[in-house]
Amino acid sequence: MTCPRPGSPEELVIFARRQALLPQQFDRVANDRRLPNTVVVIPSLSLNPQELAKISGVHHYEERLLFLLMLLRRPRTRLVFVTSQQLDPSVVDYYLNLLSGVPSAHARRRLCLLHCADASPLPLSAKILARPRLLQRIRDAVGDQTIAHMSCFNSTPLERSLAVALGLPLYANDPELADLGTKSGCREIFREAGVTFPDGFERLRDAQDIARALAVLKGRHPAARRAVVKLNEGFSGEGNALFYFEGIDGKSEKARTAQCLERLPTGLHFEARSESWPSFIAKYQQMQGVVELFIEGAHKRSPSSQNRVNAKGEAQAISTHDQVLGGPSGQVFLGCTFPADDAYRLALQDAGMAVAQVLASRGVMGRFATDFVSVPDKDPSTGPVSWTHYAIEVNLRKGGTTHPYLTLRFLTDGAYDPTTGHFLSQDGTPKYYFSSDTLQSDQYQGLLPEDLIDISVYHGLHFHGATERGVVFHLMGALSQYGKLGVVCIGDNLQQARFLYKRTTQVLDEETRVASRVD
């Protein structure tokens, strides 16, 4: 099969023709879950490779989409799952055994696992496109293209080219709209949606632009302590840097600009420990970025609102979370709790929906999250407070809050109630979870996935379908080399979910200490 040149008018026409089939497919499967359909999962992290390199064990993040194996609960759904490297069979078995009501052997017959045998840092989609025989094997596994679509982590021209090569529609955002999810693009979306967001500037190109923006912000907000400088395409907060205004005291904008420009090479505090001014400004000049006030507050929170625009163009509220952040100044995503705090959950959902409706009007499709910084008007421990929610960014991809929420949904067959912001299991019980992608310790290095599963079962941590409580692991492929894994701890209340996370860390620490003593 001859594929059109990437980005060519011919490719764009074919892509648009395939995308037009999605609404019909969506209606068909939504109305009868027993109808045959095929999902091709391409968990490619098609993001800036220099930014991805900052994340420990990042090539294993393809495994975060393994929760989609739970789609095999639908008795006539087939899944073609492609990865850079072969998945550990025990990890695949782990997910298949989480399926309730479906024998794992039945699910396995409907699962096709393919891989590139390539551990290079290239995006998975690029690896597949470079392997025509693998492309043909995927086509052969799909069979009837009229009942199949492709799903991915994030959508770029690479995923568009791959979808065209496979003859499938792409259930994700059109890559032509990717700018809407950059730090600059989302500020413009916030402005149109009428939501509150930090004072600042977008579409900045170089050090001079950064310095001028900082100078103007200092003039507008004389008491401001710091601002944040962001790469347009930073990942998990690793593309951010703080600038402190101490000593920037020029009387004129020109004088302040000169002071800021002089300080930039030594005065930026990077969230990524490996970052430096030369590499940061080189990436800034390549991808552009923003400068905005850093939102201060002794009791601030970092919630997010998850939304979806379905294949028919309808914006929907999916969930809300409180993010768990770390890093030098608390801007790096570590995990999340679901749902967001009662005090502001529905207000947050409303703000997220305002953003989602604007994105839907622009043609965006798929799942995405809007991140906020929320500040109370007083100490929340003293009584009821009023919260101000500042929209910070939109992630037009399956982000760190996607897989824990969908794990909960697939495991319980429950549903999100937008009137309360709760997720209800089939018997009406609200469910909660604590999730993290960054449970990591040098002690855990050397643990194999089957070791982790043994430990989990022995100590009663493993998710139990009857009670709908317990721990679900992910990123298990990163465990042996990096001592890193992810967890979704599901409970009947947030205290129980947090306890499960604490218990998991205690068990792993103790088990690996015992192993060290034995060695």
Structure report:
There is one protein chain. With 519 residues, the chain is an alpha+beta fold. The protein has three domains: 164 residues, Rossmann fold, CATH 3.40.50; 95 residues; 216 residues, D-amino Acid Aminotransferase, Chain A, domain 1 (2-Layer Sandwich), CATH 3.30.470.20. Helices cover 35% and strands 24% of the residues. The strands form three sheets. Strands 10, 11, 12, 13, 14, 15, 16, 17, 18 and 19 form a ten-stranded antiparallel sheet that branches. A hairpin with a 5-residue loop joins strand 16 and strand 17. Helix 1 crosses helix 8 and helix 9 packs across helix 13. The chain is globular, with a radius of gyration of 23 Å. The protein starts with 8 loop residues before the first helix and ends with a helix. The model has no long low-confidence stretch (mean pLDDT 92).
SSE order and pairing:
Blueprint: H1 9-19, H2 22-31, E1 37-42, H3 49-52, E2 77-83, H4 89-96, H5 104-109, E3 111-115, H6 124-129, H7 132-142, E4 148-152, H8 157-166, H9 183-193, E5 200-204, H10 207-220, E6 226-231, E7 240-244, H11 253-267, E8 268-270, H12 277-287, E9 289-293, E10 303-309, E11 315-326, E12 332-338, H13 345-361, E13 366-376, E14 387-395, H14 402-412, E15 415-417, E16 422-424, E17 430-440, H15 449-458, E18 470-474, H16 479-482, E19 484-491, H17 494-518
